[in-house]
Amino acid sequence: MQRLLMVTGRWVLLALVVAVAGWSADLLFAAPNASDPFAAPLDVQRQEAALLPAFHADLDAAAQWDRYTVSARVDPERRTIAGSLRLEYTNRAADPLDRVYFYLFPNLPEFGGRLDIRGATVNDVTVRVRYESNRFLLRLDLPTSLPSGASADVVLDFSAAAPLDASQRYYAAFNRERGVLALASALPMVARRVDGAWQLATPLFRGDLVTSETALYDVTLTVPVAWTAVTTGTAIDSQTDGASRTTRFISGPQRDFTIVLTRFPSISTEVEGTRITSYFRPEHAEGGRVALDAAANALRAFNRRFGPYPLTELDIVQIDARKFLGVEYPGLIMIDRRLYAGEREGLEIIVAHEVAHQWWYSMVGNDVQNEAWLDEGLTSFSQIVYQEEIRGAMAAERELDGFRSVYLRARQAGRDAPLKRPVSALRGNYTAIAYSKGALFFQALRIRIGEPAFDRFLHDYYATFRYRIASSDDVRATAENACACDLTDFYRDWVLTAAPVAVP
Ligand SMILES: [Zn+2]
After folding, report:
1. Low-confidence residues in the chain, pLDDT < 50
2. How far is the CA of 141 from the centre of ligand 1 (A)?
3. Cα(377) to centroid of ligand 1, in Å?
């Protein structure tokens, strides 16, 4: 995510006004498609459609990933998505499992919407729907316990609704405003387990929200023909029936499946096999072109410096964000209107930032609530990489200088902190630490271990942790491996303590 520096700590107030959210109670519960998309297990070979040919072999690891098959109808007028979701879930822990949890992000007060589960089955046996944590969690007790290594089919009938024109009050990536219905995190998502323990903490609304495992998605959406569905992954089939169009999307290995409906025009280009498409308001055609060019340049730069992006598509959609400048989802980034309109500076570098998140957050995952610096720090550092590749050394130095001044201002004000800090422990200094000090860490590491070792580190980190979740310790181990050196003191000073580090 790219935040506004001045906007922090305001979300807590929003719970008070959730009762007047803009969704209507009489939701349209549209029936799923007549043909039964749940008749067969998810077809792993079909997932090749979302991957460049050089990465089809990534699907050899598919046994590690849960599979979602979704069939849903989206109504942009009512701002609803309703349908069925099947999860083919495997118990990958050592102990048998007696329940399964899902995250229902739209039920977080900050979303200003809702997500209802109207029915649930496990292996065709109806199970009771139980909500926990103020409906953020769905709990399903399994009819029979699931042994280690065994799989179960969970089917949910769901219906979600987003607010209208609510970017001032709620999370703008789940909102309809000015020709865009953004439905980030609209689908129920199985909760993470770490060492056999469910991760059930309600995320704090500071920065990013979703930490999730890689999964495979096969999603069929029916939408009015006047609207275009833009999603994670790629469309493989589309049929028009009167006023509706039904399109099947394939994600490839991704951490989330994000849906946007838009009526905006678009322009596209292709970079090293990946098709990039930019959607923008008709009056912002110039900004739409700047966003496309920035994404193309970023993709080219990061392919070279980090290792290639494996997917066939990347989409950029203009939204009204207001409280932030951009936000990343797998294969789809959303950028605030004001950057296109020239009301705020920095469209090019914000797009580059969100494209870098495709490497750091999307491909290489991390716990965004407990180690946010891993993706925000490396993504902010990637802005320096972008400038080096595209605009030259002077621009890179200016970028670096921006991070220096934000971090040093916080440090001089007594707000320094270790990089490895949960967002709950970072308040007004979240941006200064996770973004600026994080970026400076990678620049300092680069100077410490030298350019060839640092280049190896970036490529190794990406190749090793692609589709996985990396930790701070993994950064250290990968860097020590790349330089064949000991980084104990360096890591302690930057990551574990708030020692007065030498700013590069
Ligand atoms: Zn970010």
Report:
1. 5-34
2. 36
3. 8
Q: How far is the CA of 57 from the centre of ligand 1 (A)?
A: 29
User: For the domain 366-496, what is the CATH code?
Assistant: 1.10.390.10
Cα(346) to ligand 1 centroid in Å equals 14
Closest CA to 275 of 253, 258, 296, 302: 296
Alpha-carbon distance 64 to 62, whole Å? Answer: 5
Query: Minimal CA–CA distance to 65: which of 256, 231, 221?
Result: 256
Of 110, 103, 132, 111, the closest CA to residue 199 belongs to 103
Classify domain 2-263 by CATH number.
Answer: 2.60.40.1730
3-state helix, strand, coil in the chain (%, to 5): 35, 30, 35
Q: What percent of the chain has pLDDT over 70?
A: 93
What was the pLDDT predicted at 3?
Answer: 66
| Ligand 1: centre distance to CA 345 (Å) | 17
Are 86 and 39 spatial neighbours (Cβ–Cβ below 8 Å)?
A: no
Q: What is the per-residue pLDDT for 35?
A: 59
Coil vs helix vs strand at 415: coil
CA of 2 to the centre of ligand 1 (A): 5
pTM above 0.90, yes or no: yes
393 C-alpha vs ligand 1 centroid, how far in Å? 23
d(CA 99, CA 212): 18
Compute, in angstroms, the gap from residue 160 CA to the centroid of ligand 1: 26
